[in-house]
Design a protein that fits this description.
By secondary structure, the chain is mainly β. The chain contains one helix and 21 strands. The radius of gyration is 17 Å and the shape is globular.
């Protein structure tokens, strides 16, 4: 979908686009940057060959999701294995090692304006306990108020970039304007979006997608939804 019209983008399809550009350090030359409206963030498609290496994340706070394959990340005495459908955040200024026995495909989102804070690798636990969180505003809902829960397991120093887990009972709402930008990986359920041009897309368990900054779209879910999120909150 054209970046001239902000909307929802299927990132597994986008990752196969031969026109992606640039590199996706800190994992060497196997990464590319997608042309996506993501505010102060960049979205990455990363392919890593079997092997190992030392890396330094100096461009920002980086969230990565394993799509295919398995990778071991090591920081100090901490070891974290990412398998398909699991993710972690790597804070700016962190030096770490990685190792993989077979090629790995990952999706990433990097907050470029991150202020260097506590170094480390922060696991986003898919089974972490969740606490009640705000539901959509009453004036946009077209269904009963849902019950929503979340757990932000990584926050940038200024809270502009958050990564964690969210779930909700079913709900439907009218189109809203996304001043922010949110990348999602569905762990459970199914969601349908419709944008202001009446384009519609449905994403299901296992799908990874992003709502671009500036999009206007609806939300329709008719079953329990649980997702991993990487969320850029614009302050402008």
């Amino acid at each position: 979908m054209s970046v001239d019209h902000p909307t929802f983008v299927d990132l597994r399809i986008k990752a196969s686009d031969n026109h992606l550009t640039g590199d996706a350090e800190p994992f060497g030359t196997g990464g590319r940057i997608a042309e996506i409206r993501a505010g102060a963030c960049e979205v990455l498609a990363v392919t890593i060959a079997a092997g190992d290496g030392e890396a330094y994340e100096d461009r920002g706070d980086l969230w990565v999701l394993a799509q295919d394959g398995e990778i071991l990340l090591t920081y100090a005495q901490q070891e974290l294995i990412l398998s398909p459908g699991t993710s972690a955040a790597i804070s700016r200024g962190t030096t770490f090692r990685w190792r993989t026995e077979r090629p790995v495909a990952m999706i990433g989102m990097r907050y470029l304006d991150a202020v260097e804070g506590t170094h480390g690798i922060f696991a986003i636990d898919n089974d972490a306990p969740l606490s009640p969180s705000n539901s959509p505003a009453l004036d946009v809902l077209t269904s009963p108020v849902p019950s929503c829960r979340s757990n932000s397991m990584f926050r940038s120093t200024g809270d502009e970039f958050l990564c964690g887990i969210w779930d909700s009972t079913p709900y439907q709402r009218r189109a809203i304007y996304f001043q922010h930008c949110e990348l999602m990986h569905l762990l459970e359920g199914e969601v349908t979006f419709t944008d202001e041009s009446d384009r519609t897309a449905t994403f299901s368990k296992g799908d990874t997608f992003i709502i671009e900054q500036g999009a206007r779209c609806t939300w329709e879910s008719y079953a329990h939804v649980k997702k991993i999120y990487a969320y850029f909150k614009s302050t402008k």
